Structure formats: structure tokens, C-alpha cells
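Complex 240.
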Amino acid sequence: MIEVKEVSKCFGALRVLKSMSFTVARGEVVCLIGPSGSGKSTMLRCVNGLERHDSGTISIDGMTVDTTSKTIGSVRAEVGMVFQRFNLFPHMTALGNIIEGPVQVRRRPKAAAKEEAMALLHKVGLADKADSYPSQLSGGQQQRIAIARALAMKPRAMLFDEPTSALDPETVGDVLVVMEDLAREGMTMLVVTHEMGFAAEVANRVLFLDRGEILEEGPPSELLRRPQNERTRDFLQRVL
Ligand code: ADP
Ligand code: MG
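Predicted structure with adenosine-5'-diphosphate bound:
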């Protein structure tokens, strides 16, 4: 579903991604872990074309991600993204946020979009918050709305960039449950996270990224319990 081949990216003289390659199969959940500044967010942003990679190729379900192409908008619409900071539109209700993409981008009739949005609100456990504005919701609730908003576009894959890092501890669990449900339903997911419990339970594979390179990858039972690389061991000792 997601194929990253020898992707490199510099910011000025700084080489942030060094010929990175990995794939995420349909229905697979891959967690990307690694120290701050290792290039995790940049990688995710390149995958959905928010950032342009310098060389190598990225494709989503066979469609090439090329930010200079006219088709980048339609490729981007196939990939849902949830950020660390819930960036809901503050002047729109939860429901308004969720129907915006389907109505504006997918040209869904409003009534149908609303019906689908209500189903998504049920799914994320917030059916009673349809008319609430983001400022009236907790961080965890906003993040679940952000997930519902991404799902409303019926994406082929979902990218998460530390979706629970900015949340109060007591709201983290509700968000992780929604993500687990999504994984169980077969959504293809690429997740940057420091939640090692989530990685251990839900990921099919974990990639350890350091200084723009994947140093180690494997099933969580291997990588998290018996890391082979010294830097992976160091990192895990610090976060676990
Ligand atoms: P991570 O998400 O793993 O913490 P990032 O991908 O955010 O890492 O950043 C990787 C490196 O790239 C960092 O050194 C960061 O400062 C740098 N960087 C990220 N975005 C930009 C940008 N837009 N311009 C310049 N440098 C950037
Ligand atoms: Mg980051």
C-alpha cells in the first residue's frame, strides 16, 4: 500500500532522510520509533506529499507521490493524516469538521456526508459531541474527531504523527482504543509513536529510525524485546 524506495531529503546542508526504504502492506500496522530529530515527521510528511523528497520514490497503492504533479491533490486525498496537535478548524463544530473534506473535496451531498459523519462519531465514541466546537472538547476528544475527520475521506491508508504526545495522560487511552479498532478493521497504518505498549500490542512491524536511517526493523516481539542494534537498545532503555 505504501512503498518508500531510497528516499532522501535535505533541509539545506542537513541530511534528514538518508536513502530510506520500507513498505507497508495492505492492512498492516507499522510503527516508526526513534529519537527526537531523527526524521520521523519528515518521513510521514513526504509520504503524503506535504513535504517534497529530493530523490527516491514514494507510492501509495501504486500512485506516485510527486508534489510537482497536478495529481498530488488526489493522491493526498487517499491518505489520512493525524498530527500531534489536533488541527481542527476552530470555527466549525465536530460535525462540520468531519463533513468539510467529503463535501468540498469529494463533492459528497451534504445530507449523505452528515449521515456518514454521524456514523464516524459513533465509531470514535463521540456521537453526543456532534455540535460541540473544538474549544469545548478535551484534547483526547479533539484527537478522536481529527481521526473521524481523516476517516471521512475514506483513505486507503492512515498516517499518525505522535497522535497522543500532546494529550493529558487520562485521555490517551481513548485515542489508542480508536486506533486499535481501526487496526483490527484492517486499516493500513503508519504510526509514529512513543507509546511502546501500543507498538507491542498492535504493530505488525516496528522500524527504528535514527539520524535519517532505519537501523533496525522487525516484529515488536523481536525489536522491542531483543533489540540487536546498540542504538535501538539505548533508545528503548530511555523510553521504556
Ligand atoms: P522527528 O519527527 O523524528 O523528531 P523531524 O522530521 O521533525 O524529526 O526533524 C528531523 C530534522 O529535520 C531535525 O533536525 C529538524 O530540526 C529538521 N527539520 C524538520 N523540518 C524542517 C524544516 N522545515 N526546515 C529545516 N529543518 C527542518
Ligand atoms: Mg516529529
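DSSP finds nine helices and ten strands in the chain.
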